[in-house]
Structure formats: C-alpha cells, structure tokens
Amino acid sequence: xxxxxxxxxxxxxxxxxxxxxxxxxxxxxxxxxxxxxxxxxxxxxxxxxxxxxxxxxxxxxxxxxxxxxxxxxxxxxxxxxxxxxxxxxxxxxxxxxxxxxxxxxxxxxxxxxxxxxxx
Length: 119
Description:
mainly beta, seven-stranded mixed sheet, four-stranded antiparallel sheet, 60% strand
C-alpha cells in the first residue's frame, strides 16, 4: 500500500503565499513523476505543476512565475510554493505520485487540501 498525504492548505488574502507539502510513504521502490492538480467548484481537475525525479518541471500557464514545485527524493516529498495568490487559485489541491512498487507503476492520489484565497 502507498499513502499520499497533502498538507499546508488554508485561507490567505490575495497577494499572499502558501506552501503545500505532499509526502508519499509505504511500499515504494521509486517515484517518477510527482504532480499537483487542483479542482475548483464546478470545474474539472486541472494540472498545476509536475516534477520528474531528475528535477525537470512543467507548469500550467496560469501559475507560471508565481508557483514553484520542488521535491526531496530522499523523503518522497513534493512541495508547491505559491506566491502572489489570486482569487482564482481557490481550489482543492491534490497530489499525485507515479510510484513503482511490487505492483508495477501506478498513480496514487492524496485526499486533497483546501486553498482559499479571499479578502
């Protein structure tokens, strides 16, 4: 079994910052991609940012220059530093880890953490 747990969400004013964390644990041989998605009320889940085990990153256009994804491979943890937050960043943020274990390669999702940007 693999557990993926996000933390760090909360309420912040426009222009503020938050740092999300996501830790994967359990039966893990290696982790390829680690990704952050978000889903706002009434909208589809969208990819926010992703990072490979080698550190290559990719961002949604809407967050480029404001969000930074990073990871600590030794801790199987990925971070999302969110700066200059906007009202439209309000969403539940989910972490996905692409994990190799005895079952092969699989996606494991966290339960989500709420980010609310409001004045």
